[in-house]
Design brief:
The structure is a homodimer of 265-residue chains. Chain A has 265 residues and is α+β, with helices and mostly antiparallel strands. Chain A has seven helices and ten strands.
Chain lengths: 265, 265
């Protein structure tokens, strides 16, 4: 039987999961998907995710791929998974892709969004999807710091402690390139802000560490110069605490669209 | 000690509660508030809510009042409750009001919002706060039906079965007056719709029953004439099924603002 490579586009609510990656101490999204795909394909399926998300982090467009010989149409994997998975994981798309596509190694970039609410009391229906930061936050204060981040930098100051060895295995250390950084305010709800980051890759906790430090700039606790010094220090101890997981959404993973997709034959 | 009447403004996520009203078979918002107020005041506190919400229904602006002799500033009730309550209930405001204020009997009107998503696959982070209705829904189809509802009508066709005796005790039977009805589309997210209703009162399940039937108008399964006939029939069996609880938000309760509030002395 012919081996196929299937790419999944996945949204999930990370609240009730111990993150993406399979591990021993609790339910993960990878584990839920592999279990159900094992039933659907009657094979032992291993999924490659585009990246790991931590416990409580959400995804609007995670990408993963897996190899199977099951002969069903690609879209049927999505329908079968959605009928078996809990409602906090949804398969948005499932397509055949070329054999050399790998969700992690083929990825050319990612976008993240981080949502905060700065009002005095958090609305209960938002508490799992938006970080509560009840401070006098002025986004214009941090525009210069956001601009500083664009381009190629060593982001060691914003990398999770203890993950250095792992990131070094890619050969580029803690160097990453950010294409786009932004802080948006919801015009209809002025205490609702979103940080947006796009780049060629992100270190472990990088977005949450950037947000934690940018929040200090936004309330005037750090100046732009101090922020620049933190970035330049390449030392995690210089930056502010990690922002909570619940406000973070993996929005999109970017690939070279010309080469990857294979038509259903 | 002097008796005081305290009014609370409350937001809650109804997902994990069996509705507002105290009952035997599960946790309710009323019960949670009364328990914590008993600890704060060292009195047996009974709360009057402006209305009941069903299991899974949310509130952005529920109002309640209670009588106490506890001498603390009114705002301190809010702070103390927020420090003791789970995060899915938040006290947005707490003020002294005149002795004759009663959250239910003094209410002059209420506003509800009902949120739906009509796309093929529901986003996991929205599943508890927005009803999934994956159909070709056209809001312009139901404008005439929404206009029909404005004014004073007997809403028996949209009243929960079995609640007739209770509503009759108010002396106005199933007659209610709607001031405003609307179906809004989120311009940034075209498959996200909200129904808005304001009126002098709502029967049990009335908003969910109206939405259930309006959805059928929105997909062309019922015409405006058929909708008018259902309203005129005063018979619950003529209308469509009740829409799910999770999309419903109690937005606001209206009072005569001139008479109710008492300054902290």
């Amino acid at each position: 039987m012919q081996q196929r490579n299937i790419r999944l586009l996945i949204a999930y609510d990370g609240t009730n999961f111990c993150g993406w990656q399979r591990q021993c101490n609790g339910p993960t999204i990878q584990e839920a998907l592999e279990k159900k795909l094992g039933i659907i394909t009657q094979e032992s399926v291993q999924i490659n995710g585009a990246g790991r998300t931590d416990a409580g982090v959400h995804a609007l467009g995670m990408v993963a791929n897996f190899i199977t010989t099951a002969p069903m149409p690609a879209s049927a994997f999505g329908k079968a998974l959605n009928s078996m998975l809990p409602k906090d994981i949804r398969i948005l798309d499932a397509v055949d892709v070329s054999p050399d596509f790998h969700a992690r190694f083929s990825a050319q970039g990612k976008s993240y969004r981080y949502d905060i609410f700065t009002g005095p009391l958090q609305l209960p229906a938002e508490r799992l999807y938006r970080t509560h930061f009840p401070c006098s936050f002025q986004p214009e204060r941090l525009q210069a710091s956001l601009n500083l981040l664009i381009g190629t930098h060593d982001f060691s100051s914003f990398e999770a402690v203890g993950s250095r060895d792992r990131s070094r295995t890619t050969g580029r250390g803690a160097v990453r390139t950010l294409f786009h950084t932004q802080c948006l305010v919801d015009p209809a709800r002025p205490e609702h802000f979103s940080f947006c980051f796009s780049g060629d890759g992100f270190l472990r906790h990088m977005v949450r560490n950037l947000v934690g430090t940018l929040l200090w700039v936004g309330i005037g606790r750090l100046s732009t110069d101090q922020f620049a010094a933190i970035l330049g220090a390449r030392d995690r101890k210089k930056a502010a605490p990690t922002a909570p997981a619940c406000g973070l959404f993996l929005e999109k993973v970017y690939y070279d669209e010309r080469t990857e997709e294979v038509r259903d034959s």
